[in-house]
Design brief:
about 0% strand, mainly alpha, single chain, globular, about 375 residues
Length: about 375
């Protein structure tokens, strides 16, 4: 659906201008993603309180990816029908409900429900917030808008464990205060989205049309290369996020949740730096270099597990995170450029099919490596 400009409406708050609306959308995107990784350093506390196994923690990790994929497949195109705001605001609502589940959890079921809701929120924001930022950006700056979207995504994912680690370590009430802060952050994010103008024309008869992943035949070769890089990159992030908290506590004796959050934050921060570095290398070099760094980072991670070395663990995470950011953005930029040349009508105002499929691929893989965690860390034979 082509854009029709910023739609004005009467509401109780003044409408934001284009630049302010762009900033409000980026903030809401980051806040929504913060909520998805807040529980990472807290799972050890939940395990102690509720008495479930290491394997069950991996199931909790996997339910998040299932929620993301479901949202991308069910709601990936819905904002073209109902408008961006009408989908982003419920996405924040799902994030708030997820926080409430963790606040009131008295056992495993609410933890699982909370992760599914968090995944649904992330899936909505991944596609719709990216499209909104592109809509709000001037035509000559749409490439930068996609960069802002990926940076908001990764920055939010990285800040979640850091925030939860710091609050749970030093502020008291570790399983409650973190999520009260999350709810507080959602308030200004919701106000910003409510006050922004609607950048697309709303259909009089919107329809929910779930769509299976499809890639045009002309784009399959380039999409496969981008998807493989995304597969490997998010698999590494998922593995590192799953392995590092247990490895730090059980093998290295690092019991500080703030330290666990800082280590995970370093990986996502390195990914953010890798994405910013793309223009310096160019897409042709960035994809193979980033993929190579992923291999090096995984080698360092395996070595750190064998030697019980904190330094190697952090170094491997930073190297792998940088490679993930570089290869992921190079693959996405390559697919988007080809999409724009062949499907220009779609890509000027929406995340076209190849970009949505790319997100389905990468987020689906982010939930897979966590299943390997019990054998990689906690069940690894001790010397």
């Amino acid at each position: 659906m082509p854009s029709v400009g910023l739609t004005r409406r009467r509401i109780g708050l003044p409408l934001l201008g284009r630049n302010a609306a762009f900033a409000a959308t980026a903030l809401a995107f980051a806040v929504a993603m913060v909520g998805t990784t807040l529980p990472t350093p807290l799972y050890v506390l939940y395990r102690e309180r509720f008495g479930f196994s290491e394997l069950m923690i991996t199931v909790i990790f996997a339910t998040y990816a299932a929620g993301v994929i479901a949202a991308l497949l069910l709601f990936g195109r819905l904002s073209d029908e109902v408008g961006r705001r009408r989908l982003l605001l419920p996405g924040l609502g799902l994030s708030a409900l997820s926080a409430v589940c963790f606040l009131t959890a008295n056992g495993l079921p609410l933890l699982l429900v909370g992760r599914i809701l968090s995944g649904l929120s992330a899936g909505i924001f991944t596609g719709t917030a990216t499209a909104t930022l592109v809509d709000l950006a001037p035509p000559e700056r749409r490439g930068r808008a996609t960069l802002v979207a990926t940076l908001a995504n990764m920055a939010g994912l990285g800040c979640g464990p850091l925030l939860a680690g710091i609050l749970s370590q030093w502020a008291g009430s570790p399983l409650r205060l973190t999520f009260w802060v999350n709810l507080a952050l959602l308030v200004p994010a919701a106000i910003g989205l409510w006050a922004m103008p609607e950048p697309v024309k709303v259909s009089d008869r919107p329809r929910l049309r779930p769509q299976l992943p499809q890639v045009p035949s002309q784009m399959r070769a380039i999409f496969i290369r981008a998807a493989l890089a995304g597969f490997a990159g998010f698999a590494v992030l998922g593995l590192f996020t799953a392995v590092s908290p247990a490895f730090l506590g059980q093998d290295l004796g690092v019991t500080s949740r703030a330290a666990v959050g800082a280590v995970v934050f370093a990986v996502f921060a390195a990914s953010t730096v890798g994405q910013v570095t793309l223009p310096l290398l160019g897409e042709a070099l960035a994809l193979p270099i980033g993929s190579g760094l992923l291999i090096v980072g995984m080698g360092l991670l395996a070595l750190s597990l064998g030697l019980s070395s904190l330094a190697l663990l952090v170094l491997g995470g930073v190297v792998a995170g940088f490679g993930q950011g570089l290869s992921f953005r190079a693959g996405l930029a390559s697919a988007s450029r080809r999409m724009e040349s062949r499907l220009r009508l779609w890509t000027t105002r929406r995340p076209g099919p190849s970009r949505s499929e790319h997100f389905v691929n990468t987020y689906g893989r982010s939930g897979m490596p966590s299943r390997a965690r019990p054998t990689t860390c906690s069940e690894r034979p001790k010397p």
